[in-house]
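Write out this protein's structure.
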Amino acid sequence: MKTKLKTDHALFQRLKDDPPPWWKNLTLDTELYIDIRKNNYLNVYHNGGSIMRLEGAKDYKAKIHVEYIPLNKTSDYLPFEFQDGNISLNESKIIDINNFKKESLERIKKRVRKFYPNDSEKGIQGQYVINAQNKSKSKNGFFIDTELQYDNKRIDMVWVDLGTKKIAFVELKTIGDERLYIDSNKRQEAIDKQLSKYYEFAREHKDTLIDYYNRIYCIKKNLGILPEFVKENSLEYYKLIEKPILLIGDCTQKWIDKNAKDLNNQLKDIAFGCLYHGRATYNFRIPYNTSRNCFRLDEA
């Protein structure tokens, strides 16, 4: 895995030494989370939707997807205009983001939830990250990263376990994802093949990945965007769990009773463990032991 990530990159140093008002407002919002990227930029997320990609060694450069920008509207409807047999929309202005103060930020988040509602896979992902950094009672760890990209693949979440000093890949699914139902005739790659590739990637790049996440940790620590309960100086001596963890975030007990046994059998040599959570369960933990709806598959 190649990375250009520098802990002393000018972007991160500038945010640390002279944080602008808009940055402070973003970091104070407890429904947002920030991921550091390997090419020295960052994303600010809500419910899995990036409301800002921020980069720039000399000057700030940032962008947002056009779908997430609310209009500055006076009513719920925009009038059409008719002229010379043609129809057009009245010109409408977008909102003033006002340095991401609360009212403007709430309107942007509302737009994001139109595309990634709380019960979508992205929305569930966001709830897990936010819960771990803001609301977790156990304080046993946190998600340091989401959407790790490599070789046209993407790993959903990366967990840092503070008690055991371990780092783990977490693949998040919902029960509607056809890749869970292993069938060689399906177009999408089945879950066993998908997790096998993550396992191979972790084994091949273990030392590089530990170094990479140590750098991300140091950047987040310098920026003051780690969860308040995290006190580690670094992740330098942490170990990587090579086998990924499967997390299914919107299960019903009926679905678990019908599908979990088959999935566990299919993944027993590939995954470290499987977690089957209900629609309102966002407390993640590494499945070191098997218990109700939590299965340790790795016997090593």
